[in-house]
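Technical appendix A lists one of the benchmark inputs used to test multi-chain prediction within the project. The record comprises two sequence entries:
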Amino acid sequence: MSKYLWKIGGEAGFGIMTTGHTLSKIICRRGYHVYDWAQYPSLIRGGHNTYDVVFSDETVTGLKWLIDCLVCLNKETFDLHKSRLSSESLVVYDKDDFDFDGNHIKINIPINKILKDLNGEMIMRNTIALGASLALMGGDLIEFNDMIKTQFGRKGEKVVESNLRFALEGFTFVKKNYADKIKPLLECKECDKKLVLSGNEAFSLGSIIADCRLYAAYPMTPATSVQTVLSSWQKKTGIISRHAEDEIAVINTAIGSAFAGARSSVGTSGGGFALMVEAISFAGAAEIPLVIFLSQRPGPATGIPTWTEQGDLLFAVHAGHGEFQKIVLSPGDVEEMVELTLEAYNLADVYQLPVIIMSDMLLSEAHQCLKENRMDEMIKTYSVNKGKTIDTVSQGKYLRYKDTEDGISPKLIPGTKDSYYLANSYEHDELGRSTEDSNVRIKQVNKRARKISTYLKNDFALPKIYGDINTSEIVFVSWGSPKGAILEVIKEMKKKDINSALIHFTHIYPLAKEEIKKLFVSGKRYILVENNSEAQFGKLLLAETGIEIKEKILKYDGRPFWPEEILEKLT
Amino acid sequence: MATIQDFNGVNPTWCSGCGNHGIGIALKLALTQMNLDPSQIAMVFGIGCSGNMADFINVYALHSLHGRAIPNAIGIKLANHKLPVFVIAGDGDTYGEGGNHFLHACRGNHDIKLITHCNSLYGLTTGQTAPTSQKGFRSKSTPEGSVEIALNPLIIALYSGATFIAQAYAGDTPQIIEILKKGIEHKGFVLINILQPCVTFNKINTYQYYKDKVYKLPADYDKTNFDEAIKKANELSAERYPLGVIYETNKPTFTDQLSQLQEKALIDKERFTDFSDLIKEFI
């Protein structure tokens, strides 16, 4: 089947988010693939919220422009999105709220009347609308009812009963009055169990699997839900989720705990990350392992807080005064988020440096499905690698910053008997003591730099290639969340017999120049796709490898890429 | 058993006559007398003359950034709450650059011993005005005299929830040792504000200045009386400096109140592996 887009809209604060997420889970449980995304303003009440749920029986990796079913809990929803409707589109609404002209299929449901007759609360309009939607898409209420019971169970029998009733009212109203409009889209299919996961949830899960012991954060959209999830898991998993007074304290707390031997990470968005920058340099100098989750939103300054952009790449790559080492990773979907999160904690420990995981609002908050057996496989094949971390000292004086061939010095857990050392933000000798000696300085700078040569040799991963570069007319080059939209584009082009490919970078800094250069052959049409205005990865690629990509598709209105708009730009 | 020599790092580079010498020796003596050895202690050092002690003392140490020693120490404590954790920093570092961290560390009653070397100016950058400088203090950064009034760290700590607040004087090493030992025994956030003449740059707060203005709290002083402690702390604004433990109360520390840490230190816990219990939330 081709992709189907169900979209709901209404006033902020009235349950739109929960409703969309519930539908995504229902769809996944019924055997389909889903990709969803919520759009909301930076306020709690009064604004306009919408939620897109795209699904198909094939893998879905991106959004869809044309709306197949628009659920309007207010008139604004219709007005704002009518340009994305066709004559085939269903519009679910209540004539009591508003009516409209336009060549679309009207599904008029007396939501307000049902609500009033049965003494319901405003928030339950969603339940009626979702019941009606499930009927229109040829589903049933089995999963929805289950979810109502789990979701509202602790609110008591009465709340559960009334929600079940409202779901049924919406559902049966469609069955009775719009039977001819029902399409068999959600018939139950046999399939592997799937998780419905956002990027933030994937990072949270990955952190627990990687044995992260301390996560520190200060709330900031769109990274906040990592803190919410990990805080809620403290009792179960034993992790400490520390909400410190500001981002400076956040990262310095994590540096302290990492120094003491606990795997530690922090999470934030651009503004908070800016406050952390001095300490990133500290972690670099003192060689403290640390994972930094940076979920980008459109800047500069406060920017557009609840929307999306990839505007912090060069800032992240260059974050920190002085010259020191860091690794920057960039997942493009939730599966890669789990993979790279697991890897990030190992890299931080092995190379004793800060590792930044770049996300953005789209990747952080959009849900995708991930097969449970793939998740299990990632768990099974993972081993916690703490590199040269030691908890005993062999003969001789322990040298924290021992000058080694691979640049990596054994790192002793503080508290180990019969030893001690100084981890130092000043330039230091092998013992850790402050120094201004020119030879020692050069030695330590070179030692730290060798860690990166070792990384490039042992752990750097070349970009993933989707499609066949050799036979492709067009080769997209990208990093992070645009991956999903580009993969949809490649699929669409294939239907038109045009071969295209994607070079998707996940290990974005540092880059292995010679190997990357081999992917760029002359006479081929390479197109850089980035969700920013300055083609930041293009600049980084040019600086690090000498490769310049002239053709660019850039977007910086705070919205992510729709596959349709990339396709349009190609012609 | 460790001796003071075991704690000796490289020779201090402080100016001759600097109050830091006395504080440094007092600290090593207090640790020795408490039967601690260098491997059983974590210290975080700020940036400034006092922070340079990082090289002069043997312990598990982190020489931090200016102002950030407190959150580093909180992190160490969260990771391994069985390790005694100290912060050694100056007044500019603690009350200026790191003022926000100081405030919130008091609130959390984190089990950290904060030893502030309070010389009322910025020594390492050659003598600029500090948050604890008296109003009107003339320096390179305030040639016409500082406009702000002096910050009172004792009052801030008292009102913010610190559970052990003391003041000492660099000219009286035996008393520093005595207070340090009490502070080390205390469970919770400890502030020991040590008044310290800077012989090179501070021409106001000299040994002579303090000689006339410091006094020891009487033996019958009730350190558990909060209102009395506020009165004593308030004397700073009249340039009277009580020495001794000004306030002490026993309350659960931050880590005492984390259910995750009831049995083992965070770094000593078994890895959590029941991932299926988490995964089911997403199906």
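The CA atoms of residues 281 and 322 of chain A lie 7 Å apart. The two ends of chain A are 26 Å apart (CA to CA). Comparable benchmark entries are summarised in Table A2.
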